[in-house]
Write a structure and sequence with these properties.
- The complex is a heterodimer of chains A (449) and B (116).
- Chain A is built from 11 helices and 22 strands.
- Chain A has 449 residues and is an alpha+beta fold.
- In chain A, a hairpin with a 3-residue loop joins strand 2 and strand 3.
- By secondary structure, chain B is mainly alpha-helical.
- In chain B, helix 2 crosses helix 5 and helix 4 packs across helix 5.
- The two termini of chain B are 18 Å apart.
- Classes of the chains: A alpha+beta (449), B mainly alpha (116).
- At the A-B interface, loops of A face loops of B.
Chain lengths: 449, 116
Amino acid sequence: MDQRTSSFSDPKMKILAASVAAVAAAGLVACAGGPTRGADTTGIDWNKVPANKLVLFYPGKSSYEWLRDPAAHKGAASETARGDSCVSCHDDAKEEQRQGAKILSGKHPLEPIALPGKPGHVDVNIQAAYDDKNVYLRYQWKGSNDIEYPYYRFDGKEWKTYGAPRLDKPVQEGKQPAIYEARMSFMLDDGKVPMFKEQGCWLTCHEGERDLNPATKEDVAANAAMKAYKKSDVRKYLPASRSNPSDWRTGKLPDELAKIKAAGGFVDLVQWRAHRSNPVGGADDGYVLEWRNFDAGKNHFASNMNAATKQPNFMFDAARFGARAVSADQVRTKDNFLIKGANAVPFDPNAGWKAGDMLPRYVLQPADATGSAADNKAYGIWKDGMWTVVLVRPLNLANPDDKALKPGGVYSVGFALHDDNITTRGHYVSYTKTLGIGAKADIVAVKLP
Amino acid sequence: MKRNLRPLVAIAALAGGLSLSVPAFAQQFDADAAENVFKDNDCHKCHHATKAKKGPALKKIAAKYKEKKLDEKEAIKHMTAGQKVKLDDGKEEDHKIIDTKDVKVQTNVARWMLSH
């Protein structure tokens, strides 16, 4: 089926298109060179682009440190430490299916919360193409329509978080509903990050991060490097950013990191998000070095909480959205995206808020998205149980926080997929693949006519 | 279920004709079941059918057992005792222990391995 035809016939796309039109009409959209938000305007006939099958699997707590622990990664710790590739051992034709099923079996140390019925792997269809301006990646996978993100809910006195990712304790204890957005991401390197070609995303996954025996707030607050980074928790980082790669506490100081970054010792991180970027036609652009950073400029979304007043920054425009807030029973019943320039207006603390009123935790800001952070365009549509996402990334980016994709280039890529209201270790990941822009690789981007 | 009868038939014919004893490992086995246990235990991470990885290829192991007239009992001992194995770089490492105590399952895996 022609995706563009199906996208316009879908009610959700009509709503998105209406949102986009409203923003455009307000003169707030400038997306020259990229697709119009909400629709695949690339004009690509995807039927003529070769398809590749990726199998992504559930990694659980298989961190950088776990992989190098002889008592845990038995028989392979020293090989991993010396830089052998994952697939030098994990080379069975059904490796991803086998590992994913084992980790989610309920008796594997890598996943203490084995969710019943959760599949150990997901098949992803990927197509790649390029022209004189952009690289285009088209993903398709069967997954849940997770377009929601946790909310702020007014309890009569305060605005508190409502909903959380499925592995979070409040959800596991039945105190909060599982709410989280679907995501399709990749990390990419151009050969400048040692071992990324061999071990991919596992280089960035460390003890101390969320859902991986997380560091305490107190420990992070007391750490000099984390203070220098102005971060309050531990996120993805590359080994080169630490004196001891297996210890998040040993972060190098900004001057040293700047040298590593200038030499290209970082990986690009591009994330399509079903709630926070898709409704405004984007995919965020970030990079991993000492933390999981966003690129310079402004992202497609921003927090909807005012740190000073402890109240939201924006609420829905009742004239456009139908109400100034939503309630719990409206979750997953409509598109509750709060979009500046379309249906968001400044929060009015005197609007007669009542207990149970809810507002999105993030406000989307299509007109504010600028700079390197706004390089990528994307659109995604969920239909009949399947997501189809098209990502558009410009060629030859010259920003210091980007890995430039160039015709003839071959890049190492690790893919990740978040499905079923989940984040952090609950995702699916790939072993490292290669992406060639018109060059021989696992996934070859073909030149468009 | 795929049953491999070829070793049994060939060796039985040979034994009948030449009055030789039948090696214990040249028995019937369920190849699919054995391969599943083998891979579920991550044995394939070190042992490939034909090429050397961290450990020797199954083909090489089978040839060695045949040459030394070792049987499946020795193979089972190897996969259950956690004994030291010497690697190519000279280091020694404890061999992984298969996660089943079911002798029938162990025997099936051993027979399949030695059929390579």
